[in-house]
């Protein structure tokens, strides 16, 4: 299959027709030079590609860069080194996206599972490792681990019980964080609508932080790492059972805002929670509930804080 320069230009700027887009993506999948980036590299490639696409004019010139044009003809041979490095990085990220979504000749078949709100699912990997997914979560993993590492991708929350293998580090990528272990038990919470990525270690040793390794911490048993946007990764000692309460049918609240608790209730009980005022959203609450249901939790919170609530058609409304 041959792809023209104009097709690549339209695809890069987001102006391809559906048929043309399919042709370009099929061509990318067939390239022998497609590679899988090292952990953290995808984030950098994504950033470069997004900047390139955003600054690209219809005639193929990068806006704000006088007398400098991108030569798209090199795309017919990815391995050619005569091209712009920036464009190569952009295309590399595209290739990575296709490799991780479609089984290629040199890559193991990938599987993807997800849970709805209120669901919980246990996944056993080819090495014997087990991952328990919390509600509204997604896990992507290979049918069989090949190569020098064991790589999975998580969106949402999962409890990981990883089989020890010194020859193959186990790596968990999320949209913004990187976790590497040899064999351990830990909980990783990385919901896209949360402001934090939180990793709690129950057993073993974990390296956790940002992809570029400029801001990472090593965590051991009883420690927790927290990563937030534009803030340094921080760590401290915690009780691991508080982070893994969802795996044991308990619900632990410790100095947590009502808004944060509402998100957890939505994921656990498949409801929508509306809080009628900002002051209530910021209200800090604490409590531990064992083998309980939604009504019990809300009733207890109402008793201890003076809030009022109603439940109708799986919609919870909290008011003062």
In short:
The chain is an alpha+beta fold and 320 residues long. 26% of the residues lie in helices and 32% in strands.
Number of helices: 8
How would a crystallographer describe the biggest sheet?
A: 13 strands, mixed
Mean pLDDT: 79
- Terminal CA distance reads 65 Å
Report the principal-axis shape.
globular
* Radius of gyration computed on alpha carbons: 23 Å
Low-confidence stretches: 31-45, 51-105
Helical content class: 25-40%
Percent of residues in β-strands: 25-35%
Q: What does this entry look like structurally?
A:
- By secondary structure, the chain is of the alpha+beta class.
- The strands form 3 sheets. Strands 1, 2, 3, 4, 5, 6, 7, 8, 9, 10, 11, 12 and 13 form a 13-stranded mixed sheet that branches.
- Helix 3 crosses helix 4.
- The termini are far apart.
Throw out a few tags for this protein.
32% strand; 13-stranded mixed sheet; 18 strands; 320 residues; 8 helices; alpha+beta
What is this structure's SSE topology?
Elements lengths: L4 H8 L5 H13 L10 H14 L30 H17 L8 E5 L6 E4 L5 E4 L4 E5 L7 E12 L8 E4 L4 E4 L3 E6 L5 E8 L1 E5 L6 E5 L2 E6 L5 E4 L2 H4 L6 E8 H12 L2 E4 L2 H4 L2 E7 L3 H12 L2 E5 L2 E5 L1
Parallel strand pairs: 5-6, 15-18
Antiparallel strand pairs: 1-4, 2-3, 3-5, 4-5, 5-8, 6-7, 7-10, 8-9, 9-12, 10-11, 12-13, 14-16, 17-18
